[in-house]
Amino acid sequence: MSVFEGFKFRKVSSVIHNLDPRVKFFFVCILFVMAIMFNQFLALVVLFFIPLPFVFMARVNRQWLRSLRGAALLAVFIFATNFIFGYFYPSSSIPHVDGAIDTSMEYFALFERAAAMTLRFVVLIASFSVFFLTTSPDHLGLALQQSHVPYEFCFAFTTAVRFVPVLADEAQTIMDAQKARGLELESGNFIKRVRNYIPILIPLIVNAIRRSLELAEAMESRAWGASDKRTNLYKLNLKRADITMVLITVLMLIIALYIWLFIPVPSLTSLLFT
Amino acid sequence: MAIIETKDLTYTYPGATTPSIQDVSVTINKGDFVILTGPSGCGKTTLCRTFNGLVPHFYNGTLEGEITVSGLKVADHKIHELARHVGLVFQNPENQLFALSVEKDVAFGLENSAMPRDEMRKRVDWALQMAGISELSERPPHELSGGQQQRVAIASVLSMQPDIMVLDEPTSFLDPVGAEKIFKVINELNKKLGITIILVEHRLDLAAKYANKVIVMNEGTVALTGTPREIFTSEKARLIGVGIPKATKLYQHLKRQGVTLKTVPVTTEETANLLLEMLNHD
Ligand SMILES: Nc1ncnc2c1ncn2[C@@H]1O[C@H](COP(=O)(O)OP(=O)(O)OP(=O)(O)O)[C@@H](O)[C@H]1O
Ligand SMILES: [Mg+2]
Question: Is the confidence at residue A79, as pLDDT, over 50?
Answer without folding.
Answer: yes
